Structure formats: structure tokens, C-alpha cells
Amino acid sequence: MLHIIAFYLFAALVIASGAMTILSRNPVHSVLWLILAFFNAAGLMVLVGAEFIAMLLVIVYVGAVAVLFLFVVMMLNIDFAELRAGFVKNAPLGVVIALVLVCELVLGLGAYRAGIIELGTPSGEVLLGQTNIAQIGELLYGRYLFLFESAGIILLVAMIGAIVLTHREQRSARGHQNIAKQNARRPEEATELKQPVSGQGVEL
């Protein structure tokens, strides 16, 4: 019974948060609703026993992608005075959402301790006494170690190639400055004494 309540609560909040992400007129509020949707989706993954996917949703999507969206949105031309003015008006809604999140955490933890939701008979091998994170780790660093390391090397080469292609030396109109050549100059090469005749000036 606890699983069913937790499932419908997380699912309803995912749908509601997704709808508010689209319908919200303020882009900052849209990103915050998106973060709430990611958290509830992670709760659904925990209920079905996919802790690894839940962790990826929180760390990658909430911790990286959504925060990046928030930084980009905050760089736009947004009237922050209007946002501060609406803080007091929206404070009760924020308190309600915070209480709902706390209730979700308590309910999700209780449902997880009670056991995962059985979605059907698994088609692969299931090792008793191991979580799916441990099984994924054994597969990645065991059977598929070569492919996993090869993918990492390919991504590293792609990153280095992107840096090399985008890095270009900018030569100014005055010419390129050679620091080593300047440091190697001796005083007799850098200065030249002139003995001009009085009244004729100096040729530069």
C-alpha cells in the first residue's frame, strides 16, 4: 500500500512540475519547476529499484544541466526587482512545496525500505544480495572494461581536438611579440649612442 501511495504521489508531481515548467511565464521559475520534476522522477526510479538512474538524475541533470540552465537564464535581461517584490507573495507556495518535498523524502525512504516495486520478471541474470549499482559496476569494470575505457579515450580525444580547433593565435597589426627574443637581447644591442653635431639634430 505504501508503494502505491508513493508511486502516485511522485508521478502526479512529475506531471504537475512538467506542466508548470511549460506554463510558467518566468524563465527562472520554469527552471526551478524543472528541477522539482527531476527530483520526483528520481523518486520514481528509487521505487522501482533503479538507484543508479536516480543518482544520475540528481547528480547530472539537477546538479549540472539544470544549474547550467539557471545560470544562462539569469544572464538574460530579467527584472530582478520584480522577482524580489513577488518573493513575499510566493513565500507560502514555497513553504508548501518544501513541506511536500520533505513528505516525499520520508515516504520514499519508507517505501524503499519496504522493498522495490516488482514490474515483471527480469530477462537477464539477477544476482541475489547485490544492488543494481554493484551489478552495473561489475559489468562496466569487468566484462565491458575495454569498451568503457575506449569510450573514455574517444571522448578525451574529442575534447582535445575541440580545444585545438578553437585555439587560434591572434596576431595584432603591430606584429607578434617574441618574449624569448626580447629576453635574449643584450644592452649593447638594445641601445645605441648618438653624438649629434650641434644644430643638426638626430636621424632616427
TrEMBL record:
Pfam families: Oxidored_q3. It is found in: Cell membrane. GO terms for molecular function: NADH dehydrogenase (ubiquinone) activity; oxidoreductase activity; quinone binding. It comes from the Bacteria. It is a multi-pass membrane protein. GO terms for cellular component: plasma membrane. PANTHER family: NADH-UBIQUINONE OXIDOREDUCTASE CHAIN 6. It catalyses: a quinone + NADH + 5 H(+)(in) = a quinol + NAD(+) + 4 H(+)(out). The chain crosses the membrane at residues 6-24, 31-50, 56-78, 90-112, 144-165. Keywords: Cell membrane, Membrane, NAD, Oxidoreductase, Quinone, Transmembrane, Transmembrane helix. Belongs to the complex I subunit 6 family. NDH-1 shuttles electrons from NADH, via FMN and iron-sulfur (Fe-S) centers, to quinones in the respiratory chain. Couples the redox reaction to proton translocation (for every two electrons transferred, four hydrogen ions are translocated across the cytoplasmic membrane), and thus conserves the redox energy in a proton gradient. Its EC number is 7.1.1.-. Residues 174-204 are annotated as: Disordered. It is an enzyme of class 7 (translocase). This is NADH-quinone oxidoreductase subunit J.
